[in-house]
């Protein structure tokens, strides 16, 4: 029977679109941390922050409980307040915009570039008003945004540049690691990301004042620093000087983060190999488009997305999605434009704001990309995709 008609899946077992890689060194590092007197915010947290500074070349790093907490802390540190507008991309996880709402700000969505799928600097310019206080640009799938252009726009308009690099740890822009190029850069260590702490996040910055604010915000805005206290009745006395949160990371999560970070270059190389293979194979398939990379970005890819061309769209993405699932290929869609979510619709955002993002959303499917995929896995994934496309192009 030909591959076209067989009902046997190309892959024997289901492969998810993303997955963590934990080895014995990671387990040992966590076990060791659990035997320490500190269970939370102890020496491992400090060491993880130092390791992140080394990796990103940033002067300061603050680790927190998630990438979402990192974004919230970043918005709070720059003082986003009710009525402030912050420009971001619609093609992202909701947290990139929710953090603006947490501070009472107004998310303003700027459309993406039709080929790189990252926020388009021209669209950022178009959306700037007197109320704009910041840009949150997302390194979508791991590819760096056009950092120089965005930095220039922010400088001209005296607004902050937050880079949401949840997807992009390990990525370099013009030879510099992301993490020290925007005013604030945020990371996520959720299990599908390039390195994981279970849950976790970080903010990096070169600005000492922002760093101090981030550290306070992570722990209720409570200080013991004598220079900040208004009264000083006894040793160990503390005062709450703002409205912070408990966004602390535990020491055993930080120990996992340190151990994972040691493998970043190995993780990164393997992800690049897989991306190169996919790019080569999918470039040969006329019914697919792949994401364009800018020369400036040396990307550690978090997600791999295929875009369906017109003849496949006639079949419908959900039909293709179901057929690929039957081949045991795990899939996702990253992302529906944030303002499509019912919560945002209730806030008054209407469809049509960002037409390029909206048409991208209708046409994309995320396929498996993670460190431990074998060569035979990726060959079979490509075979499965070819098989389904041939089925529907017949
Ligand atoms: C672009 C982006 N920003 C922020 C986040 C939030 O990170 P976390 O899940 O660690 O809260 C995610 C999570 O997937 C993300 O993809």
CATH fold name of the largest domain = Aspartate Aminotransferase, domain 2
Tell me about the largest β-sheet: 7 strands, mixed
Which outline best applies? globular
Cα gyration radius (Å): 22 Å
Overall pLDDT score: 96
Query: Helix fraction?
Result: 25-40%
In this entry the ligands are: pyridoxal-5'-phosphate
N- and C-termini, Cα separation = 16 Å
Give the domain tally. Answer: 2
Oligomer: single chain
Q: Give me the strand/helix succession.
A: HHEHEHEHEHEEEEEHEEHHEEEHHHHEH
Number of strands: 15
Strand % is: 5-15%
Describe the structure.
This protein has 394 residues and is an alpha/beta fold. The protein has two domains: 24-261, 3-Layer(aba) Sandwich (Aspartate Aminotransferase, domain 2), CATH 3.40.640.10; 264-393, Aspartate Aminotransferase, domain 1 (Alpha-Beta Complex), CATH 3.90.1150.10. Helix content is 39%, strand content 14%. The chain is built from 14 helices and 15 strands. The chain has helices spanning 24-34, 43-56, 67-77, 95-102, 121-127, 147-157, 208-218, 251-261, 264-283, 310-315, 317-326, 342-347, 355-363, 375-393; strands spanning 60-64, 85-88, 106-109, 132-138, 160-164, 172-173, 176-177, 184-188, 201-205, 222-223, 239-240, 288-290, 297-298, 304-308, 364-367. A seven-stranded mixed sheet has the order 1-9-8-5-4-2-3, sandwiched between helices. α6 (147-157) links the parallel β4 (132-138) and β5 (160-164). The longest helix has 20 residues, at 264-283. The two termini are 16 Å apart.
